[in-house]
Design brief:
Layout: E1 4-13, E2 16-26, E3 31-35, H1 42-50, E4 57-62, E5 65-69, E6 72-73, E7 81-84, H2 96-101, H3 110-120, H4 136-148, E8 154-158, H5 166-183, E9 186-191, H6 194-200, E10 203-208, E11 211-216, H7 218-223, H8 228-234, E12 238-245, E13 248-251, E14 254-260, E15 270-275, E16 280-282, E17 294-303, E18 307-314, E19 319-325, E20 335-340, E21 344-348
Parallel strand pairs: 3-9, 3-10, 7-8, 8-9, 14-21
Antiparallel strand pairs: 1-2, 1-4, 4-5, 5-6, 10-11, 12-13, 12-15, 13-14, 15-21, 16-20, 17-18, 17-20, 18-19
Protein name: ABC-type quaternary amine transporter
EC number: 7.6.2.9
Keywords: ATP-binding, Nucleotide-binding, Transport
Length: 351
C-alpha cells in the first residue's frame, strides 16, 4: 500500500473554482476526514481523487503512480479506488450477495470472497435478502462490502451516514472505522459533522471556500485551531476582547495565559481571546484572591445528560458559557469564582 498524495490541486466544478491549491498526504492505512460546511469543495475534492473531475492545476498520485494532472486523467475504473456514496444505491433486483458480488471478479473463489465480505460487515445471515428488506444501516453495510470487494488501494466515503438516524449513525460509523483500520484500508471520509470527524479520523482536513485551512490530528484541530474561523467551526467558543501583555490577555476573566495564533501582538494591543467552554472552571479556592479569576453568577443551565452548559453572568457585565460534567452542578443563581484552566488562543480583532 502507498500514500495518497494531493499536490497543489485545483479543481473546477461547473464554472466554479471548487478546490484551490490543496496539498495533503494521506498515509497508507490512515483514515482522514475532510470536514467543512456545504459548498466548501469537499465532494469536488473526492470526485477529483476518484477521477470523475479533472484537476486544473497540481496532481494526484498513489505512491509513484500519477492519477491526475492537467491534461491527464486515469479513468476511475483503473485507479484502484472504491466509493461509498451517501445513499447505498443498491441494485433493487439483486440480493445482498449479488450486490456485493457485482464488484467481485468472476472466477474461482468468487463465492468465498462474497461470503467473506458479507461476514466482514456483519451480514453473513442476510445474503439472500433483497435491498427492500434491509434497514438503512444494513444497506450501507452492503455498499461498504461492495466497495471493498475489489480490494481498493483507497476507499472514499461521501457522507455515508448522513441519511441515518442519530442512534444508528453513531454506532455504525464507529463499527465502520474499526473495520477499515482492521483491514488497513486507506480511507477518506467526507463530512460536515464536526463530531463525526473528530471522533473517527486519524487526521482531519478542514476546508473553507476551496482552501485547506488546517490539516492535523483531531486534538490539534480542536485544541490548536489555525484560525479563528476553524476555532468557531469545529466547536463551541467563548470570545472575549482584552489587552495583550507578555503572553497573557487581561480580560473579564482576569489575566489569562494565551498563545497568539498567526500574528505577533505587541504589549498593549487589543486581541480576541478564544476559549473552549470546558476550559473555564469554577475555582472556589480563588474566592479570596481578587486578582485571580472572575466573580460570576449562574444565569441558566442547559443539561445534556453526560455534561451541561452553564451561562454565567460576570460582574463586568458580560456573559460566558462553561461546560462541565453533569455531577454536582451548581444551582441557577449560585455565585462562583471562575478561572481558565489552560492557555487560551489569541487572534487579531476583526477590522
Amino acid at each position: 500500500m502507498s500514500d495518497l498524495v494531493v499536490s497543489g490541486a485545483s479543481v473546477i466544478h461547473g464554472s466554479t473554482l471548487a478546490v484551490d491549491d490543496v496539498s495533503m498526504t494521506i498515509r497508507s492505512g490512515e483514515l482522514v476526514a475532510v470536514l467543512g460546511p456545504s459548498g466548501c469543495g469537499k465532494t469536488s475534492l473526492l470526485l477529483a481523487i476518484a477521477g470523475l473531475l479533472p484537476v486544473r492545476e497540481g496532481s494526484i498520485a498513489i505512491g509513484s503512480r500519477e492519477l491526475s494532472r492537467p491534461g491527464r486523467v486515469v479513468p476511475p475504473e483503473k485507479r484502484g479506488i472504491g466509493w461509498v456514496p451517501q445513499e447505498a444505491s443498491l441494485f433493487p433486483h439483486l440480493s445482498v450477495a449479488e450486490n456485493i458480488g457485482f464488484a467481485v471478479p468472476r472466477g474461482r473463489g468468487r463465492a468465498a470472497r462474497i461470503r467473506e465480505l458479507a461476514e466482514l460487515v456483519g451480514l453473513g445471515a442476510l445474503t439472500n435478502r433483497a435491498p427492500n428488506q434491509l434497514s438503512g444501516g444494513q444497506a450501507q453495510r452492503v455498499a461498504l462490502a461492495r466497495a471493498l470487494a475489489p480490494r481498493p488501494e483507497v476507499l472514499l466515503l461521501d457522507e455515508p451516514f448522513a441519511a441515518l438516524d442519530t442512534q444508528l449513525r453513531t454506532g455504525l460509523r464507529r463499527e465502520v472505522a474499526e473495520l477499515l483500520r482492521a483491514q488497513g484500508t486507506t480511507s477518506i471520509l467526507v463530512t460536515h459533522d464536526q463530531e463525526e470527524a473528530l471522533t473517527l479520523a486519524d487526521r482531519v482536513a478542514v476546508l473553507r471556500d476551496g482552501h485547506l485551512e488546517q490539516f492535523g490530528t483531531p486534538e490539534e484541530i480542536y485544541q490548536q485551531p489555525a484560525s479563528d474561523w476553524v476555532a468557531r467551526f469545529v466547536g463551541d467558543v467563548v470570545e472575549l476582547d482584552g489587552a495583550w501583555r507578555g503572553g497573557r490577555v487581561t480580560c473579564a476573566l482576569g489575566a489569562v495565559e494565551a498563545a497568539a495564533v498567526g500574528f505577533t501582538p505587541a504589549d498593549g494591543d487589543t486581541v480576541r481571546l478564544m476559549l473552549r467552554p470546558e476550559w473555564i472552571v469554577p475555582r472556589p479556592d480563588l474566592l479570596a484572591h481578587a486578582a485571580a479569576g472572575a466573580d460570576a453568577r449562574v444565569a441558566s443551565i442547559s443539561y445534556a445528560g453526560h455534561d451541561a452548559m452553564l451561562s454565567c453572568d460576570l460582574t463586568a457585565g458580560l456573559t460566558v458559557r462553561m461546560r462541565m460534567a453533569a455531577v454536582d452542578l451548581p444551582a441557577v443563581g449560585e455565585d462562583l469564582r471562575l478561572a481558565v484552566q489552560r492557555p487560551g488562543l489569541a487572534y487579531p480583532v476583526p477590522a
